[in-house]
Amino acid sequence: MKPIPRNREKRRFAAGPAADPNAPLWLWGQHAVEAAISNENRIIQRWVATENAAQRTGLTGFEILDQKALGKLLPPGAVHQGIAIKVQPLEPANLEDVTAAPDAPARLCVLDQISDPHNLGAIFRSAAAFGVGGLVLQTRHTPPLTGVVAKSAAGAVETVQEIRVVNIARALDTLGAAGYHSVGLAGEGLEELGEAVSGAAKIAFVMGAEGSGLRPAVAKACATLARIPMVPGMESLNVSNAAAIAFYEAMRSKRA
């Protein structure tokens, strides 16, 4: 299989009309649904499940549908595992409020125009696994937290804060003023990742878009650019894989 050219990779996921971030949405899949039900901030409008899925999960209150009828409510190809709920979107957090809170997270991640919802969901999942408390996303050019994102995140969109900002470079200035050491992941980084995160009390990782990476203005706003050491001949990693490695390295460094 031929590799996807860099410019085409980004367009493939950016195509189509923009979704209304305030419109109700469907979440599906057992982990995503159970996590949403457990979130006291979720407003649930409709619960649907197949009889087998309702019995398997032990949850009650679902409208029972057959597999075909349930599938018609969801996007084509949704792997729903026989269970889905229609919910109101969660209200994104304000960056200044998050960083000023007494329990402000020590680890955040800033995503510079990530466009693939599967990657976004995978990064939410890794953030939950490795103690990253929030993802800073641009108001535009980053998809809303749809059912695809929630399914890929396996419930993590309910526990990792979604923080929306208008301008990523200005957000990095705000984070710097709040004491965060911003580490941009880039192949041309002068430091290795382990060196860049060592000893930092607060870290904001900055990840670039699929294919194109960090925009120049965003890279310039980072306190440092760091690279993940790899064997010669390997150009780069998928952004969600790179994020998982970065988050793990920060956790390992903190414990050390």
Summarize this entry quickly:
The chain is of the alpha/beta class and 256 residues long.
Structure description:
The model is unreliable at 1-17 (pLDDT under 50). This protein has a 7-stranded parallel sheet with strand order 7-6-5-10-8-11-9, with helices on both faces. The chain has a 4-stranded mixed sheet with strand order 1-4-2-3. 37% of the residues lie in helices and 19% in strands. It has 11 helices and 11 strands. It starts with 5 loop residues before the first helix and ends with a helix. Helix 6 (117-129) links the parallel strand 5 and strand 6. The protein has helices spanning 6-14, 30-38, 51-57, 67-72, 95-100, 117-129, 147-153, 168-177, 193-197, 216-221, 239-255; strands at residues 25-28, 44-49, 63-64, 83-87, 107-111, 134-138, 161-165, 181-185, 191-192, 203-207, 224-227. Helix 6 packs parallel to helix 7 (147-153) and helix 6 packs parallel to helix 11 (239-255). It has 256 residues and is of the alpha/beta class. The chain folds into 2 domains: 25-87, no CATH class; 95-255, SPOUT methyltransferase, trefoil knot domain (Alpha/beta knot).
